[in-house]
Amino acid sequence: MALFFSRISKLSVRRYNSRFFSSLPQSPCLVLGTKKLRESPEEGMIMHQKLFDPATEKTVYSKEKKYPKELVGKTPLGASQGWGISWEGLTLHLTDLYKPCVLSSKVISLPPLRLEYKPTTHATKLSLSSSDPVQDDFFVAAKFNEYHVSVYRPRWESEWTHIGTAYSLLPASKLMFSKRDQAFHFTSFKGLYMGSLYLNNYKEIKHKEIRLRNMPKIPQAGWEMLDNCSITNHLVESPSGELFFIKWYTQCIHQEDEDGDLEFVHSSTKRFMVFRQDGMSKDFCYTEDIGDLCIFLSNSEPFCLSASLYPGLKPNSIYYIGPRHGCYDLASGTNRPFPFDQFGKPSRVSAPYWIFSTSSLSSN
Asked: Residue ranges of the KIB1-4 beta-propeller domain (predicted)?
């Protein structure tokens, strides 16, 4: 037991006082930007965040909070379980800074990586096994390069474990944690295989073929259009433990000015396909009805919520961030961009990922 507590003490956690507003449950939100309010030697830098609330589709502002000095100049990488991930050099930092309302902002510094596993903003994918890494015994799983999945268990280990994987089975998708399976799941580059790291044996990757059934009936011209799209594959688990496999189709669009010069290049979401895993065969069957659920996709770990618990959210929908930002209705196949998304004018989003936590927002 003494050894256990000695390992806990190695976890670097710093808290920063912040001023607390009223507390109400809120839907996931998007951080549009950060504004410095004031700075002094006594307080440090005090800031608040400009946020987008998809339930009301309005801009809201977080409460005032002190910006942790450990994060100054750090590059944000993504989010998992409501925690943001930033990095500098070879060190990663977990923080709840992006949660709109917390009693105090926390920073958890993870052990440094070797040079060959240096994170990159476009490739790093990371997932946590707990929404409360300060209190819980938790795991961190990450993909830093094309050939390894990396795992770290803070309270029991002092360094990362890197597990090699075959190139054809590399974890190109976002990592996601399954509470049902107690495992980190991901898909291979083309979505042909699912890889899994189970917590009870997290030094071995297990792979299984992804079998898709009941494909949608789409005219030949529609399939030809999708063939010209880029595809990203995602896995997400519902609150009740259902597993979904999602194909996200995006198309690159360019526009020229009057002289024929390239004016801008933009990607547009054309379609989503959702497949629900069958409990018996473990195959994934196409569906356009996920009921009361809504799925959130961005540059971080996907997650799924019951829309009825968050008034204003649209059931049977996918809320997505990048390329472009909007809400996709699965039943009708209609795609509605958010108010701040203007085609041809890339939105300035400081942290392009959904942050989900019970929080308090002040409307403005």
From this structure: 59-321
Q: What is the CATH number of the domain that holds 263?
A: 2.130.10
Q: CA-CA distances (angstroms) from residue 76 to 109, 126, 200, 352?
A: 14, 12, 30, 9
Q: Determine which helix (DSSP H) or strand (DSSP E) holds 86, and give its type and residue range.
A: strand 83-88
119: Cβ contacts below 8 Å, ≥ 6 apart: 77, 87, 92, 113, 142, 144
d(CA 252, CA 54): 25
With CA atoms as reference, report the closest residue to 299 among 358, 350, 359. Answer: 350
The predicted structure's pLDDT at residue 234: 95
DSSP label of 225: H
Task: Give dist(CA 349, CA 340) in Å, integer.
Answer: 10
Per-residue pLDDT of 192-206, as tens digits, reads 999 999 999 988 999
179 three-state secondary structure:
coil
> How far, in Å, are 82, 177, 201, 216 from residue 183 at the CA level?
18, 6, 9, 30
One DSSP character per residue, 182-222 reads: TEEEEE-TTSSEEEEEETTEEEEEEEEE--EES-----HHH
**Using one digit for the tens of pLDDT, what is the confidence trace for 56-106?**
888 888 888 888 888 887 878 889 998 988 887 788 899 988 887 765 788
**Counted domains in the chain:** 1
Contact yes or no for 85/299 (Cβ under 8 A): no
CA distance 71 to 92: 10
* Nearest in space to 87 (alpha carbons), one of 114, 110, 115: 110
Domain carrying residue 120:
2-363
